[in-house]
Amino acid sequence: MISPASKSTALNVRTKAGTKSGTKSGTKSASLVPPSKLLDHLRSLPLDEDSFKHFDEYERHFKVKGYKEGGYKGKGGNKGRGNRGGGVDREVICLNIVLEKTSRLRKDPKVYERGSALFLSSLPLSVNEYTVTSYLKFINTHSPTPHLDAKLISSSLLSRSWPSVRPNGVVISMIMNTLSRHYTSNPQGGDSSVLEGTLMDLLKVLDHRQDGVGGFNVLLKFFVRRLDKKAVEGVVKRMREMGIKNDKFTVSTLATFLVRTNGEGEIKENVERLVKEMEENDIRWDDELGSIFVRSTLLYPPGTGGGSAALSYSSKMTAYGLAVPPSTHGDVVESLCRDGSLTKAIEYYRSHKSSNTCGSLIRGVAEKGKFEIALKVFENFKETDESEFVYSEIIKAAGDECKKAMVGEGSWEERLSKAAQVSGFAASIFDSIPPASPFKNVVVCNSMIRCYGEAHLVSSAFDVYAGMKEANVEPTMVTFGSLAAACERCGAIERVGVLLEELRDMGLAPNEFVYGSTIGAFKKKGKWRKAVNLLNKMARSDELVVTTSTFNAVLSACAEGGELESLMQIWKVMKEKGSKEKESRPNIQTFSIVIEALCNAKQPNQASEIIVEMAEWGVPCTTDIFTQVVTSCERERQYRNALKVYAAMSDAGVKYYEIGVLDLALKRMLKVVKNIADFDFDLRSFSSESMNDTSSAMKVEVKENSSVCYFPSRNEVFYNPVQVLNRDLSITMIRQFGETLVKERKEKLLKKQIRKDWLSKDENATVSKTGLRHPKKGVKEPDYLAQASEQLAGTNWFAEVDKEHNERVAWRKAVKSGDAELPERPPPGLKILDCLAASGLRSMRYFKEIKNVDLVAVNDLDPAAIELAENNIEVNGVDPSVVRTRVGDGTMLCYEARSGVETVRDDPRGKNIVDPKFPIKGKFDVIDLDPYGSCAPFTDCAVQAISNGGLLCLTSTDMAVLSGNHADTCFSKYSAMPMHKSGYLHELALRIFLQSVESQANKYGKHIVPLASFGIDFYIRVFVRVYESPVEVKKSSTKMGYVYQSTGCPSFNVVPTGTFTGRSYVPTILNTVAESGGVCAETGRPLKVAGPVWIAPIHSQDFVSSCIKRVEDQKTGKVEPDAPLPTTKRLHGLLTTAFEELPDQPLYYLLPNLCSTLRCTVPPRSQFIAQMEKLGYKVSASHKEADAIKTDAPNDVIWDVLRNWVRLHPISAKRKQKGGETWGGKDGLTASMKILQTEPKFQCDFEDLSSKSLQERKKAVRYPMNPEANWGPKSRGGLGVVGKRAAEETKEKEMGEDEKGGEDGGGESRPKKKNRGEERT
Questions:
Q1: pTM to 2 decimal places
Q2: Three-state SS at 1186
């Protein structure tokens, strides 16, 4: 090998190496080849027989004196290029041939040494650019350091050391290729900016006079192939500087580059500029160039004229007489669809009908959400032609529609139902293709599998795969990838295992997509060990690249499984791979998973170290991650690490002093560390910007109706717009409840007066010895309450409430001013407890928007939340003597309130919350509980703290528990078993919750009367009155019951727990269930049991009707004209649908579920309801489910109606066979067959009937769509560190030193995990 130093000195000086190298160069040959035949002789020498034969023959001939004399210069060989003085030297041509041929040998350092010496010794000859090109090929094959050789050649060209060499595009592109190969494969080998600088230098010496635009085209083609944007821009810039115009090849290359780079930059402007240059330079279009321009319009941003441009380009192709390819027609249609011009796209399709245009139109309209139009286009095309492409596109469109449905709005069941309906359309299309048809190939099958996967129908996806095997359609890796993705979505890990075994049996290795989906499925099911094992298999394979998303899935699985050690090992492997492969580099999600796991494991010191690593990887750290680590450091008292994180935030430009939670945490820690004697951390950098007033962080304003709240830019108490309806509903209910209380009080007083007047008459009463008057024997007392109600019938109760409210305001004002003569004290108003208040927004709205309020108690366990609430109370100008704040446990407040004494308690902040004028004393009229999660821990204390006839407003957001996903948790919290995957799960959740509240109340001789119960968005909200009545408590067994659900169909029966015999309450006899032998009467399948549940009405029709009237009056300004509610329309619709529900019929059916069991089409809802009403039954919907059928008809009647429907709309035999699994193997009948084999007891013709109940419905907004994306619960607000410590210290004070150890504690037991005191505002 020749060192670079020796090369640099040999570039301009001829060496003797060429004459001395080689063992055979000095040997004499028998004869020399005639000069005229030397070229052919060198070309014909075979390779690999003797690696040095070409060098030996070249040197042997040209070393002989006189061999080159006479006529050995000419214009042959290189077609006259090279020397400009009279042809190319014959020796140069031979040298080119030797270098060209030896570059094809196997890599050999000795060959490199010999050839390099030969090239350097020949430099004084008039070598040309072809010699340089041949030598570049040679060094790329044999040189151990080709980039250094290429650098030397580049330097020689730039210094003009070889006058006979004129650099052209081929030479420059080969130099750049050699350099770029080195820098791409060895990122640590040097600065890759060398490439850009070298290119710019070489472009300056490019001999464009020799090559013209062709040299630049060679370079462009080379860099476009490598997608090197900077190099392409450099070449184009140099062309413009030198005044070289584009030719057709230039334009085509640049247009191709724009398309292949996915429109980086302003693709529209760039393409239009290219078209303009073509017109200016008279460049004629051809079909390839026109197709590229049309394809480029697909990359235009939607709505920017891409469709019009595609039409224009295709028209130009036609005008030039060019044949427009079918694929280009398809691109025109797709571009029109992307631009929103669906009408033009359909017209173009009609004029250029083909499989390409049809497939593009189907894809385009489906992307715009017009799946129905896509189906019509498919049917139109199928009438005249068939195509694999069209079949594939319509099924793909169905898969995309299923994907949209599953991430769209509505409940999980609604989304599943919609996706199942769309996949059913796709299945009918797929089934219509004959099995032997060439169109039922692997592409179409893969599309169908993907469609089923998007619809979460994993069994159907595997049915398609089984059909492929039966039809001998060979699956591809795309097939297995689609099946694995379907398993991931459904968490079907058993099927994933079968899939991997089949791949192994076929001798195929899973690719990255199959592995990634399988790992995702294991993660969903919490199988972290299996996920780690699969990751290890991927890492051991040289052909697979473990992507970042795959690593993240395994890391997340380990984090959820609490396996920190495994997580850190995988994190180490990921960093090693990420340093070599960009596909495995960690991203922000990776760091978030690892840091959260470390913080949860109480290792914030390692988490702070990983924040430093984020900067090294070039991943910016988010404020949420900073906050998480700081909070963890403070919790573990690692103040030094926390301050280091603050320093890192400062370096990253994060203004933590403007972020409330970070600023407050820093202030707390600074106060602590200043008292530590040996704390040597420099605190000066934090003093100026962190010691500002806390109020500086209060910058975010949230206005909701009459109240305004100020929040820090980031805070542990979040504002959730979803809950605006919750608060509006609560205000409406409490307003109406307040009127009801005033009415009941007036009726009670009037009833007393009427009785007194009646007894004052001698004909009605006698006087006892004590002087009291009693009714005479035999004289029947009148109904005093009815008389009182009759006399008060025309009273305007809103005006009465308003009058009492004004009297109360005046009395309160007089008390505060210290007037000597106080007005008469008004009757008592409402006492409201917001037990889990957080920011206090709900409490402020209660005070400002509900009249006749005496007290609103604002309670929260977190002092930081109460401080925020107090600030907001002050900002809103709310009377602090009425809206009273309190820091403490809400359950303890309720337990203290039940005794009727003042709830005096020390505040952890050192404040006394007792005001002698306005004490928090006695039970509450309204208690609002809106926790994050289950309300179960609070119901026991709430039913004790509520006054007789008081109102409980309760919320539970643990719908996953109440819906049956965690039956054991549901039973432990609510003492009831749920029914998993039932159609009526929303109402069942309400009834389980009401049963739990009733059971808690019964223990204290109380019972509940539900006023209204709602399933809203992601939670349930109930409003119940609690009465003290031991007599009514005895009736509770008749209000509870069990649900017996068939496992084969949606049929169910509700059986009460107890029955009243006229004298006593006894257990219910299971007549209905017993008659069927304990199995479903329709299918013969076993029954599942859920309960106990509340089976009495969940709404008070009178109360809900009053609320509806109140909301309607608000629109006209009759009531609350100054405080209209933000969600009036939705609130009115919710109340209206609740009022329309049948009050005495628990649970409901879903019409699509009934038809799905039979595998039949779904009848129009209006016709089904009309048919039921014609039979004499009542039917209604549910306030939560639009497809619900709530009826008093028995199960057999409902099935008989559907049997008549199937008679009129038969089911295909193929769909009957797919009607479900056979039961027990006895009769071999599916559920559908079992139901349909029974003849209906009556005939229905489903004529065009009109439903009376539907016609009489009020006009209202029913089942509105969610107003924005991600409409759901927000993250749980964390309890501040100060709040936790204050709560712990308070608890320790109460328990005393003996109880603190937990051995002899006599206090009441507390739940280990208690709900935070934050309202999800």
A1: 0.50
A2: coil
